[in-house]
Design brief:
The complex is a heterotrimer.
Chain A (H helix, E strand, L loop, with lengths): L2 E14 L2 E14 L3 E5 L6 H8 L7 E10 L2 E2 L5 H7 L4 E4 L13 H11 L6 H14 L5 H6 L7 H14 L4 E5 L7 H18 L2 E6 L2 H7 L2 E6 L2 E7 H6 L4 H9 L22 E10 L2 E11 L4 E5 L6 H8 L7 E6 L2 E2 L5 H10 E4 L13 H11 L5 H14 L16 H13 L5 E5 L7 H18 L2 E6 L2 H7 L2 E6 L2 E7 H6 L4 H9 L23 H11 L20
Parallel strand pairs in A: 3-8, 3-9, 6-7, 7-8, 13-18, 13-19, 16-17, 17-18
Antiparallel strand pairs in A: 1-2, 1-4, 4-5, 9-10, 11-12, 11-14, 14-15, 19-20
Helix pairs in contact in A: 3-4, 3-6, 4-6, 6-7, 7-19, 13-14, 13-15, 14-15
Chain B lengths: L9 H23 L1 H4 L31 H37 L1 H16 L2 H12 L3 H29 L1 H8 L4 H37 L11 H8 L8 H28 L1
Chain C lengths: L1 H28 L4 H6 L8 H10 L6 H13 L13 H36 L3 H14 L4 H15 L12 H30 L2 H8 L4 H19 L1 H18 L5 H10 L3 H29 L21
Classes of the chains: A alpha/beta, B mainly alpha, C mainly alpha.
Keywords (chain A): ATP-binding, Cell membrane, Membrane, Nucleotide-binding, Transport
Family (chain A): Belongs to the ABC transporter superfamily.
GO molecular function, one term (chain A): ATP binding
């Protein structure tokens, strides 16, 4: 008996109103002892549902319709509650998606780790349980575990919370660990450290891992076996390297092709190279202080005409704040912004309003940025109406033209944002931004909440539009692989400052600053054997990258959470 | 409150909604055309038919003066519903205006207004209403206005929260980026998006207002005696508690039924908004 | 921590002052002449001289700010004036009646908390949908039936028909049971609604999945993890609940003919006895403020996020309320 976990013909569906929507439609899956298996899929593929179904943690409106889940030879679906409870924690450990929300806010984390030991009678006394918990926290890589054990989740960073959850999952010494997107809510550098640590712990204890991820590169880095899931079905499976090298199924092939990589090339826009001369946008000494804490701490950069500058940084680095300052949604504390040669601060009311014709923004979450009561037509028409562009008929024609430009069917115009998919919404947001024919487009994480295939489509669309319309772009992102595809130049932002600026090719192949290097090293899919080890890879998340502490402090100080949202786009697949 | 979201219960769920709607329509009918529902005189009694239990002739029995209780309940609907509508209207208008002002003016005006609202919420609504009635005097309209003002603070709070929520929403920022002007944003974005929750609250408060007003009327603060307000009917029946149960129980059940139905519909509205 | 408590205490004092001011505004500034209000329908039988006398006796001949300052000064010294109907000083009158009402409110509070939380917990942790549905529909009914009728119904059955407990008066615990149950019903129902909703929301939180994934049983998940977190919004309601228990005493003490602050208030309103009504309003605010202070003191123990730095959006208590 080498199969630790064997799922056969599993079917799970969700009830919404009077309909039942299948989420998992007959999946077979095998995990052998000590093996790492990755389940890869886009949102809505059923990967998270599959993980939850295995340990019986489906939400109320989900129903397991058929199949067996054999764990160590016993079916968990037909077994008793008591049996299932005995398996949870002791046989199977679970690491959830959202590290902060997955810890009880009113209990010290040490007690939450110790609870596993109490439940499964692995401790002789309360004292003993707590000592073991401290030991587990230590092994999970938390600095000063004795102190941490007494702290509450809100006193720890996201990465530290995820380490606590790893300690909880390993506390019962399980044979299988299910990790459901364990790092997608975290910054890339932290992500890498956590995954490294998890891999080492699992290998040392001989624990098998079922890793659920949307990221093919992560799966390839970490797993021996990959199972590709699409619309509740397994479309392809096989050894990680073989599958990645020669994907057989068209879906997998598209997934592999669309996944952004550092080895990519810039999407050919066909546009003339950026012209020299006066830059379109020129930022000098820009500073924004929230409640005494600088979120943007004196940055300088230019965007030339027809150029794409990528502003790269992790959450709390101040990149989204910069975007808000540039479009005038927040006033800067200090600094000068010149657009097309004119000082923006010196403009009068009418001049500032007129600036909206020339600078437009596309945000990460297009859904929140559209009035839920408006139709797509009204959304796209709003800027035209605001600037009294043409009469009703002319405006309607322009809306149709814009929708066509972003490759949306004309029929979409009558629908409301809630009825659209994430990619469609981002196209609508793009159409609205282009309505007035701006010269500069600021894109704030425009693709980070999207699945890779949709992401690739939007990036291609952006490149095409830039060529057609001669746009300049400021592209804000945390994802260096995306930068590779779209940017001419890169500015790396860290704790409110720019640490490195240069041509994309130079920065991405020969980074000068240590922070840029650690960012690059953290990108999954880079062959880790050839790379230099990340400085202070493990347990280092609080110290070696000196900015993270500060960046988190900025966030904790409550800097409007603008940047904080940056990486949470992908979290809750269960709610779908 | 009942979670009837199970698909199997869907027809049942619609059925009980329809029932609630019909029942409220009938009660509204009592208020508008009482003569159609009861031909008996609500004020003049027949001495020979005193304290009769419910029968076909007197659906809800008669009181100590031989007046038909059903006629009194039907004719009382106009007074009681009118009072509830005034109360909710006053609360909605005053509360929304105050909340809108607090939410849009911001800064010290917001702080000042909300401190006052907090204090209004700190004093129990019944005591506020009693104090207002002491000053305004007795009567249906006075009671209604007092209840309205006493509950206005709740509306102010919800309205302010909604205005702040919507104003902070990214789509307002997007509208500003699109070059839309302040009045357009207020009219086309803020107002329509705040109205929903406030109107749902108004629906919820309607049932509460009926209960509130009947309580004040029970305490003897509403319309002068012969007028058949529901609360006053119950109060009048107290003296005959152990001889004529119907005098207290049946008007009370009517009130409870209306409040239940109103709450049921209000919760459905709330549910649909979510 | 000291700062936290000090802040709350200052806020409490502010609320008391403001409650006094609001009640003054309602009673003395609204259109209508306080003296004719006090004299009720009999104003016509007094000569203008007598009315002027009354005016100066109650200080109503002075300017409004002057009246306010004098009244506030007196109130600070525990003097709320004298009753217009009986001529007795208001403060001792209310103080004398307070213990009975406090006892009633306290008993009702305990019943409401135990009953309300109990029903909510039983409903959400029940495995049977039918039981859950029935239990969850009870609070909705509890908030819809008029309190005065519940009181009358209890008197009719328990006292008159079954002769188990006395119907009226203030003698011993037997006479306390029915009024306390009546008073507790609407408050307990609201508590049950708030707690049940909060429990349902909490049970969907990811950290409960973490607890289940540890192998925790139903009882541990519900009691150790869900109940404590879900109780927070219900706890913030306590101040409003106690305020409303004092207000509800107006109705309940009238129905059961009990001596107490509520009955005094009801009679004062009927007699348009302004100083007594004002005293009662301020007393209601005192109850609210004291309970809120207690809640504020207890809150950090229940929720560690309060005192350890980071501001956490504390769930606002739902101010919707019906008596």
């Amino acid at each position: 008996m080498t199969d630790l976990l064997s799922v056969r013909g599993l079917r799970v569906s969700y009830r919404t109103g009077r309909h039942t929507v299948p989420a998992v439609a007959g999946v077979d899956l095998t995990v052998r002892r000590g093996e790492v298996v990755a389940v890869v899929g886009e949102s809505g593929s059923g990967k998270s549902t599959l993980a939850h179904a295995v340990i019986g943690l489906l939400p109320e409106h989900a129903r397991t319709e058929a199949g067996t889940v054999l764990f160590a030879g016993t079916d968990l679906l037909t077994g008793t509650d008591r049996h299932l409870r005995a398996v949870r924690g002791r046989g199977i450990g679970f690491i959830p998606q959202d590290p902060v929300g997955s810890l009880n806010p009113v209990l010290p984390v040490g007690a939450q780790v110790a609870e596993v030991l109490h439940i499964h009678r692995r401790a002789t006394s309360r004292r003993d349980a707590l000592d073991q918990a401290v030991d587990l926290l230590d092994r999970a890589g938390l600095p000063d575990p004795r102190r941490c054990a007494r702290q509450y989740p809100h006193q720890l960073s996201g990465g530290m919370c995820q380490r606590v959850l790893i300690a909880i999952a390993l506390a019962g010494r399980p044979q299988l660990l299910i990790a459901d997107e364990p790092t997608s809510a975290l910054d890339v550098t932290v992500q890498r450290q956590i995954l490294d640590h998890l891999e080492v712990l699992a290998r040392d204890t001989g624990t098998a891992v079922l890793l659920i991820t949307h990221d093919l590169a992560v799966a390839a880095d970490r797993a021996q076996q990959i199972v590709v899931l699409s619309q509740g079905r397994v479309v392809e499976r096989g050894p990680a390297r073989a599958l990645l090298a020669g994907p057989a199924h068209p879906y997998t092939r598209r997934l592999v092709a669309d996944a952004p990589r550092l080895t990519d090339h810039r999407l050919e826009s066909g546009a003339a190279r950026p012209a020299a001369g006066t830059p379109l946008l020129s930022v000098r000494g820009l500073r924004k202080v929230y409640r005494g804490t600088p979120a943007v701490d004196g940055i300088d950069f230019d965007v030339a005409r027809g150029e794409t500058l990528a502003l790269v940084g992790e959450s709390g680095s101040g990149k989204s704040t910069t975007a808000r300052l540039l479009v005038g949604l927040d006033p800067p504390t200090a600094g000068a912004v010149r657009f097309d040669g004119a000082d923006v601060a010196a403009l009068d009311r009418a001049g500032r309003r007129d600036l909206h014709r020339r600078i437009q923004i596309v945000e990460q979450n297009p859904y929140a940025a559209m009035d839920p009561r408006f139709t797509v037509r009204q959304v796209v028409e709003e800027p035209l109406r605001a600037f009294r562009t043409g009469d009703r008929v002319a405006r309607q024609a322009r809306v149709a033209e814009l929708l066509d430009q972003v490759a949306l069917a004309a029929s979409v115009a009558a629908r409301r944002p809630a009825e659209l998919s994430g990619g469609q919404r981002q196209r609508v947001a793009l159409a609205r931004a282009l309505a007035l024919g701006p010269q500069l487009l600021i894109c704030d994480e425009p693709v980070s909440a999207l699945d890779v295939t949709v992401q690739a489509q939007i990036l291609r669309l952006l490149a095409r539009l830039q060529a057609e319309l001669g746009l300049s772009m400021l592209f804000i992102t945390h994802d260096l692989a995306v930068v590779r595809r779209i940017a001419d130049r890169v500015a790396v932002m860290w704790a409110g400052r720019l640490v490195e600026t240069g041509a994309a090719d130079d920065v991405l192949t020969g980074p000068g600053h240590p922070y840029t290097r650690s960012l690059l090293a953290a990108v999954p899919g880079v062959d880790r054997a050839e790379e230099a080890p990340v400085p202070g890879a493990d347990r280092a998340e609080e110290a070696p990258v000196p900015g993270v502490d500060r960046a988190e402090a900025v966030l904790n100080g409550g800097v409007s959470g603008v940047d904080g949202q940056a990486h949470h786009g992908r979290s809750d697949t269960r709610s779908r | 409150m009942v979670d009837l979201t199970a698909p199997a219960l869907a027809p049942l769920r619609r059925f009980d909604l329809v029932l609630c709607g019909l029942w409220l329509a009938v009660v509204a009918g009592w208020a508008v055309l009482p003569g159609v529902f009861s031909r008996q005189d609500p004020l003049a009694g027949v001495a020979a038919e005193r304290l009769q239990p419910p029968s076909l002739r007197h659906l809800l029995g008669t009181d100590h003066l031989g007046r038909d209780l059903f006629a009194r309940v039907v004719h009382g609907a106009a007074l009681s519903l009118q009072a509830a509508l005034i109360a909710v209207g006053v609360a909605l208008v005053v509360g929304s205006a105050v909340g809108l002002a607090a939410g849009s003016l911001g800064r010290w005006a917001d702080a000042l207004i909300m401190r006052v609202v907090d204090v209004m919420l700190a004093i129990p609504a019944l005591l506020t209403a009693l104090a207002l009635i002491t000053a305004l005097g007795f009567g249906t309209v006075q009671v209604a206005v007092a209840v309205g003002i006493a509950t206005a603070a709740t509306f102010a709070r919800v309205m302010r929260a909604e205005v702040l929520r919507v104003r902070a929403a990214p789509y307002i920022g997007a509208a500003r980026c699109a070059g839309s002007r302040g009045w357009w944003i207020a009219l086309r974005h803020v107002l329509p998006n705040t109205a929903g929750p406030v109107l749902v609250l108004a629906a919820l408060e309607f049932g509460a207002a009926i209960l509130f007003i009947s309580t004040l009327s029970f305490l003897g603060l509403g319309a002068a005696p012969p007028a058949p307000e529901w609360g006053a009917l119950v109060s009048g029946g107290r003296n005959f508690l152990n001889t004529a149960w119907w005098l207290t129980t049946l008007p009370s059940l009517t009130v409870a039924g209306i409040v239940l139905a109103a709450n049921r519909i209000a919760r459905e509205l709330e549910h649909r908004r979510d | 921590m000291t700062r936290y408590v000090a802040q709350r205490a200052v806020r409490a004092l502010f609320v008391l002052w403001a409650a006094f001011t609001v009640s003054f505004a309602m009673l003395y500034l609204l259109p209508g002449d306080p003296v004719s209000v006090m004299l009720g329908g009999s104003a016509g039988t007094y000569t203008p001289a007598q009315i002027d006398d009354l005016r100066s006796q109650y200080g109503l001949d002075r300017s409004v700010p002057g009246q306010y300052v004098t009244q506030l000064w007196h109130a600070l010294h525990g003097d709320f004036g004298t009753s217009i109907r009986t001529g007795a000083p208001v403060a001792p009158m209310l103080a004398q009646a307070l213990p009975q009402t406090a006892l009633l409110a306290l008993t009702a509070f305990v019943l409401a908390v135990v009953g309300g939380l109990g029903i909510a917990l039983a409903a959400t942790s029940s495995r049977r949908p039918a039981v859950r549905q029935v239990l969850l529909s009870l609070p909705g009914i509890g908030t819809s039936v008029p309190t005065f009728w519940v009181g009358l119904l209890l008197v009719d059955f328990v006292s008159f028909r079954w002769r188990l407990l006395p119907a009226l008066g203030n003698d011993g615990w037997q006479s306390l049971v029915l009024p306390a149950v009546t008073l507790a019903l609407p408050c307990g129902s609201v508590l049950a609604q708030v707690f049940a909703k909060s429990l349902r929301d909490t049970l969907r939180e990811p950290y409960l999945d973490t607890a289940r994934a540890k192998g925790a049983g139903r009882a541990r998940v519900h009691l150790r993890h869900a109940a404590r977190n879900a109780a927070l919004p219900a706890v913030t309601l306590s101040g409003i609940i106690v305020g409303n228990l004092l207000a509800g005493a107006v109705v309940v003490e009238t129905v059961f003919s009990r001596e107490g602050v509520g009955r005094i208030t009801a009679e004062a309103v009927l007699g348009q006895d302004i100083p007594v009504v004002q005293g009662a309003v301020v007393l209601g605010a005192v109850g609210f403020v004291l309970v809120n202070l207690a809640v504020d003191a207890a809150y950090p123990v229940l929720d560690p996020r309060i005192t350890t730095g980071r501001p956490v959006p504390r769930k606002e208590a739902d101010p919707r309320w019906s008596i």
